[in-house]
Each structure stands twice: as structure tokens, then as C-alpha cells.
Amino acid sequence: MSRVDREVDRERTEPAGAADAAAVHERLVRDEQDRLFGLAYRMLGSVAEAEDAVGEAYLRWSRIDTTQIDEPAAWLTTVVTRICVDRLRSAQRQRETYVGSWLPEPVATAVDPADAASTADSLSIAFLILLEALSPLERAAFLLHDVFGYAHDEVAAMLDRKPAAVRQLVRRARDHVASRSHRYETDPDRQREVVEAFQVACGDGDLEAMMELLAPDVAFVGDGGGVVPAVPAPIVGAERVAKLVRGLYVTGERKGLRSQPMEVNAAPAVWVREPDGSTSSVLVFEVTDGRVSAIRGIRNPAKLAAFPNRRPEDTTA
């Protein structure tokens, strides 16, 4: 039983026709939970907060007369969206005092190659960072319309705004994203090839080969949240990033850290763990035109809770 189910069950008082209500709830959890989580995660950039938002929406569902709801999925989407908008407003104030660079919480993914381009567009770390500059309402309207395919009128009802206002919100958000985004490699196999070649060059200590695989303006961004050591500001430039990553590799090898390739936010990544199996960091790579254009290292322990503390098949890092 999922955490969402347990929360709802703890709070529910069984009404007449409880079997029917339970069946409806079970179907909604099964059919809608992944979609609602995807929306909440893109809104909040946090796995834990997204799970909480979805859990709260299902809890509210369990406390109302659901026979009066004509479209349960739309009702749940509306509730999740409004919860996320409220939480974003407080989160924006908290991020103003965040120590160092703020990065979204990484989430392990497994993307079907047929859907890789569309999924990566809206799930990548780079995309989520772009969304941070939007207002909560702009972010919600843009995601609901452009990513999840709701019509302007539907979004207006969810946000309690007029359709004309929603069109303005979506247009402003779309213009912002378009003006700051760049083309990146959408073929997942090609992305992995580039990152694997970079890792081999790093392991061999071949700085020249590493630099050949890095874009001239590549940036390394670290997020330790002021809790663990991380680069205090972005490191930019192929030579500087190559030396930094090679230095991290040598230090990790000396400490007995372990690494394993994986997919995170629809992009190639490296999961780095301590000798006891606990997660040390997750490095997420962005590939553009056959070269690594960004490396984002998430070290803040609060953002790594979703990665299990275990020791699978791996290689020394």
C-alpha cells in the first residue's frame, strides 16, 4: 500500500456505499497518481513536496461527497495545482536565503525512447530551473496548457482566472522559456555515449580528451544547500570544469566512493555513493551538439532521500 493510500485510510470515516467510494478511490489512485505527481513535481521541483501535495489532494477527496463531482480527475488536478501554487509562494521566499546554488531535487527516470524528446523537454533539470523565474501562476498556467494539454478555458477554471488572463500568463511564461532555452541532444543513446566517453577520459586522467567532450562554455553547478561542501558558485569553461571533475574523481577514488550510471530527469547521470552505500551525490549531465554543456551536482542530503542507501553492482569512481 502506498503512502498516499495509508494517509487516506487513516483519515476516512466510512460512509454509506463505502465499497463504491473505495472502488472509485482505488481507480483514481491507480489512474491519476503518476500524472498528478508529474504535475506537482514540475511545479515544485521537489519529490517529497510533490508527494505531499498529491497526498493532500487525495485526503481532501476522501472527505467530500464525491458523488457531486462530475470529473474527478479534473477536480484532483485543480486541487493539486492550487496546493502547489500556495507552496510555491512560500518556497520562493525560502529560496532567497538558500545557501549557494539551488537545484531541483533529482528524480530517477526510465524514458521510453519513443517519448524521450517530449519527456526530456519538460522534465530536465535545465527546464525546471527556467521555471523558477516564473511566478507561481505563470508556472501553473504554462505547465497545465503547454505540457499537460489543458485548454485555456480549463486552466482558467483550475486557477480561478478569466481565460484572457490565462492566455497572458501562458504567453509570458512561454516567451521566457523560449528566450532562455537552447537546443540540446534529444537522442538518449547519443547522450549516454558522450557522457560515457567523458567518464572514461576522466578515469584515464586525460584532460585533453575531457576538454574535447566539453562545450567551451560548459558550466558545473553544485548544490550542497549549506549542509555539505559544494562549489559555492558555478564553474565555467572547459578547462576549469575538466580539472574540477578530474580532481573530484581522484578525491573520490581515494575515499573509496562508488559510482553507477543511471538516468535522472530524462538525462544521463552518475550516482555516487559512500563506501557504506549511502548517497554522496548525483551528477546530472546535459549534452548539446555532441558535447557536455552542463554538469549539475546535487549533494544536499535533503534532496537525495529518494535514492536508496544500498550497494548495487557498481564501479569505483
TrEMBL record:
Molecular function as annotated in GO: DNA binding; sigma factor activity
Residue ranges annotated for the RNA polymerase sigma-70 region domain, each copy included: 28-93
Biological process terms in GO annotation: DNA-templated transcription initiation
Keyword Transcription found: yes
Keywords carried by this UniProt record: Sigma factor, Transcription, Transcription regulation
Residues in RNA polymerase sigma factor 70 region 4 type domain copies: 130-176
Domain of life: Bacteria
Pfam families with a match to the protein in the record: Sigma70_r2, Sigma70_r4_2
Entries under InterPro entries matching the protein: ECF_Sigma-70_Domain (IPR052704), NTF2-like_dom_sf (IPR032710), RNA_pol_sigma-70_dom (IPR014284), RNA_pol_sigma-70_ECF (IPR014303), RNA_pol_sigma70_r2 (IPR007627), RNA_pol_sigma70_r4_t2 (IPR013249), RNA_pol_sigma_r2 (IPR013325), RNA_pol_sigma_r3/r4-like (IPR013324)
Keyword hit for Transcription: yes
Similarity comment: family membership: Belongs to the sigma-70 factor family. ECF subfamily.
Subunit structure: Interacts transiently with the RNA polymerase catalytic core formed by RpoA, RpoB, RpoC and RpoZ (2 alpha, 1 beta, 1 beta' and 1 omega subunit) to form the RNA polymerase holoenzyme that can initiate transcription.
PANTHER family according to UniProt: ECF RNA POLYMERASE SIGMA FACTOR SIGI-RELATED (PTHR30173:SF43), SIGMA 19 FACTOR (PTHR30173)
Protein known as: RNA polymerase sigma-70 factor
